[in-house]
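Q: Here's a chain of 201 amino acids. Please give me its 3D structure as tokens.
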Amino acid sequence: MTDQLHYYTIEKPSTAEYKERGSRFLAYAYPIQSVEDFKRNLQILKKEHPKAVHHCFAYRIGLDGNTFRLSDDGEPSGTAGKPILGQIDSKQIVNVLVVVVRYFGGTLLGVPGLINAYKTATALVLQLTPVIQKQVLVNYLLEFDYTKMNDVMIIVRQFGCEVIKQESQLFCSLQIGVPKGRVNEVEFKLKELQSVGVEAM
């Protein structure tokens, strides 16, 4: 899935449509970070498509690839969630959710037809959204006097860290994501500043 310093995911949501013998398969791809993101996106789609017969989905979250779920949502077992997840995995991307909303067209497609339709709809939507490489980040909590803010931010920018959360009063607390390959350098630089608390999360 990753070379451990980088991983691949999608940049932004996209949609695609596939039609098969009167049935419409609307595929939606989303970049997600958590199970909460998945739940929120699925709820929105169910509200948008209340008359659809099925809202089938699959997602894979996390760099180890162990957090995943799939659902046939009433379709015959193995005909929807599996082919959707198969397409996500064939692109070797993580932190991705694909939901395929089906409007039934009156003709039964049979198991092979359903597998093909869900697979094709997912392949189409994933072709439309750019795959991007992201750095694996290690989260740190920094605590320091606000007079050190400038020095800290220079290091944060120099090493391509991401600011996740920031609270500034007289005393500042900063949550940052440090690229995994640069953790030692960043730790060393921050500790050189003195009186900056550095804690891995």
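Q: Can you summarize the key feature?
A: The mean pLDDT is 94.
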